[in-house]
């Protein structure tokens, strides 16, 4: 019969255990939120990089066209009477 009875806990110990349990739940919630924000940040970075590459590609295309126009214009001017 001695093994079936549980010793009574000190109220301070019970309060501390409850506080620890509450804090652990809070930590779990924060960790889940951080993971979610990390995923959002990675998606945002990917989108920004993709748009920057598109923008950069557009500038390169315009630069090539601009240089080609200048070269053609110089050739035309050179061969005009």
Tally the beta strands. Answer: 0
- What percent of the residues sit in helical stretches (DSSP H or I)? over 70%
Structural class estimated from helices and strands: mainly alpha
Supply the number of helical segments: 1
The main pleated sheet reads as: none
Instruction: Characterize the overall form.
Output: rod-shaped
**Mean pLDDT across every amino acid position:** 87
Q: Please write the string of helix (H) and strand (E) elements.
A: H
- β-strand percent reads under 5%
Low-confidence stretches: none
The Rg value, from CA coordinates, equals 35 Å
Alpha-carbon distance between the two ends: 120 Å
In short:
This protein is mainly alpha-helical and 81 residues long. The protein is built from one helix and no strands.
Q: If you had to describe this structure to a student in words, what would you say it looks like?
A:
This protein has 81 residues and is an all-alpha fold. It is built from one helix and no strands. The chain is rod-shaped, with a radius of gyration of 35 Å.
């Amino acid at each position: 019969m001695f093994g079936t009875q549980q010793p009574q806990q000190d109220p301070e110990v019970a309060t501390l255990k409850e506080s620890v349990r509450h804090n652990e739940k809070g930590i779990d919630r924060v960790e889940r939120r951080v993971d979610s924000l990390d995923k959002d940040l990675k998606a945002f970075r990917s989108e920004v990089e993709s748009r920057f590459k598109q923008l950069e590609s557009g500038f390169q295309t315009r630069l090539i066209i601009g240089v080609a126009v200048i070269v053609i214009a110089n050739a035309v001017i050179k061969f005009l009477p």
